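tokens incoming
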């Protein structure tokens, strides 16, 4: 072997043709807000339509501009469905996204929205590694959803890093 061959470092990961898909790239950076209607209930237990509608009318909905909002009621009260629909109508012009549920569900929905826009043809017959650990909260549901989207098109799907991965799927 000549000296040039000995001094050349080969990047086997780059040469492998693996495509790394990092779900953190699909994290919506907008603020997440938990909107609890409990304070708008009579004695924090009963929804009185007239009072509730007044709270909705007087609330500053513009403060949710660009934010992601999860509507909840943190007390055990019977809340009619229309109440959440009314909140949705008023927050619609301002919020990026809103859901009925907790912040975990909100995060799930944000990822579903983002992953729905992926052009899976980009991954046709590709060997894909879905990056594992990171700094942002990626819900397990996002990993399941990307697997669902990639399985029909990818040659193989792995989880983790190129240097240590777990095989998930291989096209037969």
């Amino acid at each position: 072997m000549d000296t040039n061959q000995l001094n050349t470092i080969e990047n086997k990961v780059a040469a492998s043709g693996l495509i790394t898909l990092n779900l953190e790239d699909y994290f919506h950076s907008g603020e997440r807000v938990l909107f609890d209607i409990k304070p708008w209930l009579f004695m924090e237990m009963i929804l009185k339509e007239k009072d509730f509608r007044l709270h909705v009318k007087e609330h500053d909905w513009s403060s949710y501009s660009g934010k992601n909002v999860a509507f909840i009621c943190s007390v055990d009260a019977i809340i009619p469905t229309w109440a959440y629909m009314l909140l949705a109508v008023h927050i619609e012009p301002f919020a990026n996204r809103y859901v009925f549920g907790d912040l975990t569900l909100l995060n799930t929905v944000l990822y579903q929205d983002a992953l729905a826009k992926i052009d899976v043809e980009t991954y046709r017959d590709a060997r894909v590694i879905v990056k594992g650990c990171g700094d942002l909260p990626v819900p397990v549901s996002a990993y399941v959803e990307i697997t669902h989207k990639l399985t029909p098109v990818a040659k193989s799907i792995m989880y983790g890093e190129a240097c240590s991965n777990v095989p998930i799927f291989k096209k037969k």
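note: Residues 3-28+114-170 form one domain.
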